[in-house]
Protein 1
Amino acid sequence: MPNITYIESSGQSTTLDIPPGWSLMQGATANGVDGIVGECGGSCACATCHCYVDEARLAELPAPGAGELAMLDNVAAERRPNSRLACQIKATAALEGLRITLPETQE
Ligand code: FES
């Protein structure tokens, strides 16, 4: 199971083993990581699972689809070049050790 680290805006860091195929949003909400809300349940319709992916590893992720790119226009916090929606990132072995930072607000 890939090991993913979530860093909240407070600086609190949580490292979790996420089952392959789960989204990084599911992994966070199932384990009480506060900085991700996931209001729409992962259907790419709420933008409350916004995260900043470690820039050094951004290119390793599948590119965002059109729906994700459109929804990123609706994030509550600053959108950055490394902004992604955690519900659209599936945990795979290739993401082992990935670190994502969570914005100050999701709503
Ligand atoms: S959980 Fe709603 S867009 Fe990701």
Note: The pocket of FE2/S2 (inorganic) cluster is lined by residues 25, 38-40, 42, 44-49, 71, 85, 87 (CB under 6 Å).
Protein 2
Amino acid sequence: MKKTSLWKEDADASAYPPLQNDLHVDVAIIGGGMTGLTAAHLLAGAGKSVALLEAWRVGGGTTGFSTGNLYATVEERMHAICSKFDSETAHAVAASRTAAIGHIENLVHRLAIDCDFHRRPWRLISEIPQNNKILEKEFHACREAGLDAYLETSTPLPFDISRALRIENQAQFNPMRYAKALAAEIIKAGGSVFERTPVLRIKEGSPHSLYTENGTVTADKIIHATHSPKGVRFVHTLMGVHREYAIAVKLNSNNYPEGIFWVMSRPHQHSIRAYTDSRGESFLLVLGEPHKVGHKKDNESCFRNLEAYAGARFDVKSVDYRWSAQNYRSADGLPYIGALDEKTGVYIATGFATDGLTYGTLAAMIISDLILDNENPWAKLYDPRRHNPLKSAGRFIKENVHVFMDYMHDLPYRAEAKIVSDIRPDEGKTVVIKGEKFAVYRDEAGVLHQVSAVCTHMKCIVNWNAEAKSWDCPCHGSRFTVDGRVIEGPAMIDLPKPETGKPH
Ligand SMILES: Cc1cc2nc3c(=O)[nH]c(=O)nc-3n(C[C@H](O)[C@H](O)[C@H](O)COP(=O)(O)OP(=O)(O)OC[C@H]3O[C@@H](n4cnc5c(N)ncnc54)[C@H](O)[C@@H]3O)c2cc1C
């Protein structure tokens, strides 16, 4: 069983060089996932000089750990959008997301991108009659949103269901192959792509300066296409960060159902889809088990639960891949896409929940229109400066109570291990040494990896993620390697090592 995503294995290994010199461009894009790549492609195609700076590898962030489903509806559910806003808003959400899927499809055809793009139905499934009411509510909301929705009582799934909601003509693809192809097209359009080039500091000004290890990029505009914007931003206080788990299994029967299936479960749903890779091997992907980042000690159990879930419904032969990734949920159920303010030319795209392959594409379309001074019919709807405290209040208060509790839990005298020698091989714990809190991991060979436990973003204390072997900040989702290097999230600065450089 491989501890990586299926998509990463089934994409070419093309690479781009790190930035090695100073550069001036019209637009600097931080992040090479769905959002950054699409924006860079659109802007380079429109004649702007563009540099895309990716900390690791293009597509290697959340995009390469997603499910590869493209649908007009949203994880939050359309009835939630209808009741928080109104049916007009739900209509605009569905129309804008449909346009983004259309953008992907056009590119796939026009550029002959080999990424297994197929139009497929999307289904929401109620396994038990008790869930039918919610399903019917969602059916009406989808209809109000202008989606071609139907109710049905049977599906291609091999287990009994009570009722299903179907929307035709949604889509699926291999997100990693699509990302790789877009990167190549950016170069063809005259843009630059730099990998292994983390942006370490940003100085906003005229022009803006983005500092990396071996070069500085100056730019008139910056796009934070980093899933969550870098630095300390108000928008971080509006979002909850959740981690979710995936397995890809093989079946004995070879009976892989086509389409997107969201099966309602308590307290969360499971997402199911099939994929046949370039060697002709088929897999069933099963995703679920979300929890707040940094809030689950035994997160290996999430995989056990997924395996049990899949095993109870399908004739599972083997579990071949497993992975996990995180997402950011906005306070009012809509993502934050657009300029941070009127003047500075800094753009963000975040709060996508698990709908960001489509929302990321839409964000790129909106932001490039804003930069190119084109009208965009949806820019206002997703504007990060929108004021809707009533629609946001519930989740805003909940998320910030959690953050407050995390700060309380993080009081300096509270630690998980009293002394470093209490930490067993392949275990990570926080330890207080001379009044300072450290995050200490003992690897399987017994070597200690010790860094400060204080997140460099907003000073919460990081928690150990046993499954991904990382230090995760429960407050705003920054993640760090065992040696303190930023993996993702709003932090830009690595966790410092103790001054002596030696484990205590
Ligand atoms: C388990 C799971 C399944 C999902 N499935 C789906 C799905 O089926 N359909 C769907 O629509 N959405 C899905 N999503 C959501 C979707 O994957 C994301 O919303 C989307 O990929 C976000 O794209 P992005 O480009 O904004 O971010 P990312 O893909 O995360 O890209 C951001 C990039 O920024 C880079 N970066 C960060 N900091 C720096 C820095 N300082 N300097 C340079 N680069 C930096 C990162 O390395 C990363 O590559 C899923 C999410 C999860 C967690």
Note: The two ends are 36 Å apart (CA to CA).
